[in-house]
Structures are given as structure tokens and as C-alpha cells.
């Protein structure tokens, strides 16, 4: 080093050098036990490559190579095959040493030519290589990041800096100092190589799953408390009533068949199954009356009926009907085998014994019913519905029509049980058929489509005159150009206040959705096609600065040219021929709905915690859009200075909802740039509102979690911490999303998160908080588990 280095910094350097050399020369027997336990399972003398060491340290080979070169752990001829596990132990010791040693280590890593200086070029090349290797920052943004880092290390004004300058910069910079402090904990981030799991066959996996399910049920049972029962009174009453009715019917059949008719045991079991099938086959219709549930949700009755569980109850009833059918069929089959007069095949497959109330058709219709039910159950399995074969599920589920027809022919008294539900079902289907083909309600056309990132397409559809919906509602969409008779459900992502159009986002995961995506992608590549609508490519647009407003190109819709009747304005064409051509070139869309979900309750609670995972954020897009419209409707713009102001009266005095926390868990933000645009606009509007009302608190808090980047204490995190926090400090926005809210990495700690919301100065009580979740079922179970612990009401949107 130069002789003009101040004595204090010189002493710091000397002390750090001595400590560093002591750690490098430390014998194995003096290595602390908490470090040895992470490496004792590995061979001590086996040569290791840089890639293997990088895997153990949970970092990149480039960084390990820099560390080894900076610490002179490799031979002069660059032959690094002699490296062994002692290198890992030494690096771990250095990482957990003093701040001065870690600062010296970072300086040596940046000093590529070992001339005791860090130059502008060395720092640029190091961080450029890191960013390109770790790949958590877009390539187009790397030069801007490097420019900010050079400014932070004062290399925008100097060509190079010594260690004393480097040390002073780090010690006086809170972000740089905090990044070096990451390694103060024990090295729990080290990857421990675990033995490969023993392969299990399908039977072993099944019983292991059953045991795990039993364990989960036991855990759930232990958590059933009076408070939980009190919060779920409608569910408890419905379950108890359902169980009691089934037991009562079963006792009635036993008493009647044993005492009155003196039937044998197999007939008794068959009649029990038949009676319970009458009840449950009627109920399975009731729980899927979407229009009736939609109307109930709009009334206070939804507080007394567990209508949010109707899909789960429908699935349970389907399984229970399958079990009852097996009982009913086996009992009758055995009874036919012991009954004299006809052979068993004659009983089962002919009408000669005259069993039943319509021409002896009962046994044969029972066989047909078993076949239909088996097909429906198999095609309703999760691996078919979610495995890209939704059409198989959809079309086979339409077998419910012949199923109920044959069931009426099969069972003498079933029509008495089913006449009410079937009548309601018929009226709902008739209403749905009439509305979806009515031009002012369901029959409409496409205005524009946008190809988003990661196989997502957004459709902007002309909103019919009498089509009304609430935030969080969903619709069934039919695109005749893709498939004439298929309707698929999608959540509306636009706000009800946005007149003239509705928008949905479709992710290409199944056969039908892939066809939709490919159709509009092909149209976008053919400039001569498209007709009366446009297809935009948001996935191919040039990268924009994160501080700029992220815009979705398909928002500019020519709505002003549509009249109230949904037709084309006369100004577009002066001739009827042109008008007919425009009509024919439109992409026809048929809407069925809307239908409501538990998201409608968001505006009825004080504090809403919205949790979305991946594409599960779509229900909240409409809700946040609606809230943003309410923000804008209450602002006042001065005619003289054009300054935006908000009235002194609280914006939320007229509604119950006072606070919203939004948590979004996603692998990355590239898939949902359209949603980031909405969040950016909301943050901007909220900032203007808080500026005009300094005595008010934030209404919306945003927390983003990127699971594609894991939160671990490694060298990668030190560099990521520096880059992300320095960028946010300099630019005032997050480097990944452009939001003011910072991005978190890994999965949320749900227990810690919920505790923070129920404790502190601005916390809410558990009774005021309502959690709304839309995403994978496994994540929902974890969140629900913690909500039960805290006494927080939990809602989950099934999809």
C-alpha cells in the first residue's frame, strides 16, 4: 500500500490482514464445531472442483473463483484440482469473521490485478459478471446498475481507490455495511448433501399419504376450539344437519325393511344405499346452482349459509355418491345371486324379472348408471382437470343429463326428491341460454387482445349494455372461432366502473387456453389479419426504465365509436355494405355470467388481507382497479394551478373497508407486467392522496415475494442486497418492479406476517382482519392453519 495511508486505516488494514492469514492457516482441529458439522460428511482429502465448492456454498462458480484467487488458495499455474473441503471451511470462517476482515475480502475480490487498488474498470467488470451470472437483473438494465454502483463507491469521480478509501466508504454507508453484516449468523445457508430418498412404489406412497393425512387431521382436531366453532356456526350447523338427516333416513330404512317387510340383510343394505342416494343425488344439484348462489350472496342470507364451501361440498357428495353406489350395487347383486326364480345374468341384464317401476328396467338401468358414474368420476380426477384435459372433464360432466334421466327410470321415488332441484336447474339453464345470446347481455365481440409475458393473453371485450358485475366476479367465455360449444371460467380483471369494456387474462395451460393463445399470436404475426380488432405484443416491446410508468398497450380502446345498443356508429361507414363487413370481421364472444365468489365480502370487512399466488392475483386486479377508480372520483383538480387535491373528508367514510394489505407470491414479475402497471398507478394515486391529507394513513400496503430468488445467507445475497438496496436508495423504486414497495425473496413467513398485523401501533384486531386467498391449495392450507391460530377469518377462492 502507499506510504501516505492514514495510520488508523493502516492499522485496520494490518489487523485485518493478520486475522485473515490466521484464519487461512488455522489447523483443522481448531476449526469450530458449528462449522465442521457442515463439512464432516464430505471426504477430507478428495480433490474438488470450483463447481462442487460453489454447490456446497450455495453460490456461483464465478464468485468462488474470485474468492480463491483473492485469497491465493490456488496454485500459481491455475491448476485448481487439488482444492479440497478445507477450502470450504476456511471460506466459511472468513465469512463469519469481523467486519474488517469481510471488508478486506470484498476489496480483494474487486482488486482483480492485485495492485492494492480498486479501479473503475475492475468494479464494473466484477459486478457485470455477477449480474450476468446470477441473472436476477435484466441485461438491458445492467449498465444503469453499474453506473449507480460506481457513484456509490465514488468511482464516478476517481479512477481508482485504495483500501483506506474503500474502508471509509463502506463504514459510512449504511447499505454497504449492512450487506457485509449478513454473514454474522452461523452458516445455515451451506448446502448439506443429503442421501437420496428411497424410491417407493405406488402402494407405499398411497399409505404414506394416508398416514400424513391422518396426522394433519389430528393436528386440525387439536385446534378445534370454541372460538373456531363460533366463527364457523353456519358450517357447523350445515354439517350436523346433513349428518342427522342421513342417519335419520338410514334408521327409517332399517326399521321399515327389518320390521315391516322382513327383508334379508342384503336388501336392507341395498335400500339404505338407495335412500341415501336419493338425498345426495338431489343435494349435488342444489350445491351447483350458480345463479341461486349468486343471488344469495347478494343478500344477508350468505351470513347464515355456508355457500362459499359449495364446490368442496359438491366434490364430497360426488365421492359419497360413488361409495353409496358401490354399496347399493353389490348388495343388489348378491341378493340376485341368492334369489330363486331367475339366474343372476337374467336378473342383472334383462327386464324379464320385472324388477322396478317402469317395465322391469331397474337392474339394467342400474348397470347403465354405474357405467356413467364411473366415467364421470374418473374424468373428474385432479390429474385430468388440471393436467391440460379440461375438455375431457367438461364434456363427460355433461353426462349428468342422461344420469338423472336414467335415475328417474331406475328409482321409484327419486323424482319426488329431485323435482325441486331439477326445476331450479332447468330455470337456471333457460335463463343462462337466453341471456348469453342476447346482444345487450351476453353476445358481444372482441375489441383487442394483448400477448403478455409467459404465455398469457389479455382479452379486452366490448361490454354489453346491461352487463353488470361486482369486483371479483367471474364469467364463462365462449369463443366460437376456437371451439363452438366450450365455455371456460375466467375472473374479470377490469373494474365495474370502467364502462365500455371488460377484460380477462388467460394463461395458456390447457388445450383450449393454448388454442386461444396460439390463435391471437398467429393473428399478431399476420399484419393483414385481425379485422375489427387489434392484437398487441407486450411480450416483444422494448424494455423500459423501471421508473417509467409500465403501460399496457391495449388500454387505448376505441370505445367512443360504439353506440349504446352495441352497434357500430354510422360515422365509421357511410354504407350498409361496409357495416356488414365490419360485423362479419368481428371476433364473436359469448359471455355466461357473471357469477360471484367470496371476493364480494372484501368490501364488507374493516381490514382485508389479499393474498394471491401466481395467476391467482386476477380476482384482486378488479378489486384494486375499483378502489383506484374511487380514489380518482374523489380528487379535485384546481382550474388555475392544475394541482390535484382531495377533500378533507376521509375518502373511505362511506364504506366499511378501511385498510387493505396485498401480498403477491410469484416466481418473478415478468409474467404479470400488466398487473404491475395497476399497482404502480395505485401507488401514485395513494401518494397524491396522502400528500393532500397528511393526517391520514396508508390505505393500501403492498408486499411482493419472488420465490424464483431464494432468501439465503450466501455470497450471492450480499451482492443482491447491495444492488437492490443501492438502486432503491438512488432511484426511489424497486429494481425488479418499479414500485415504491420493496421486493422480498423466498416465501413469506405467514406466522410472523399475521402477528405483525395483529400487534403494533397501527395494528387491527383479529376479528377485524379477513384473509382472502387465491392460489395453490397447499399454500392455502398453510395460511388457513395460521389464521386458525390467530382467530382470523379465512376465505379461499376455489379455482
From TrEMBL:
Compartments, as annotated in UniProt: Membrane
Residue ranges of every copy of the FAD-binding FR-type domain listed in the record: 439-570
Single GO term (MF): superoxide-generating NAD(P)H oxidase activity
Pfam families hit by this protein: FAD_binding_8, Ferric_reduct, NAD_binding_6
GO cellular component: NADPH oxidase complex
Keywords per UniProt: Calcium, FAD, Flavoprotein, Membrane, NADP, Oxidoreductase, Transmembrane, Transmembrane helix
UniProt keyword Transit peptide, yes or no: no
Bilayer-crossing regions: 236-259, 265-289, 316-338, 358-380, 392-411
Principal location: membrane
Phylogenetic lineage: Eukaryota, Metazoa, Spiralia, Gnathifera, Rotifera
CDD domains assigned to the protein according to its UniProt record, in alphabetical order: NOX_Duox_like_FAD_NADP
InterPro entries the UniProt entry points to: Cyt_b245_heavy_chain, EF-hand-dom_pair, EF_Hand_1_Ca_BS, EF_hand_dom, FAD-bd_8, FAD-bd_FR_type, Fe3_Rdtase_TM_dom, Fe_red_NAD-bd_6
GO biological process: defense response; superoxide anion generation
Reactions the enzyme catalyzes: NADPH + 2 O2 = 2 superoxide + NADP(+) + H(+)
Residues covered by the EF-hand domain: 98-133
Protein name per UniProt: NADPH oxidase
Topology class, membrane: Multi-pass membrane protein
Domain of life of the native organism: Eukaryota
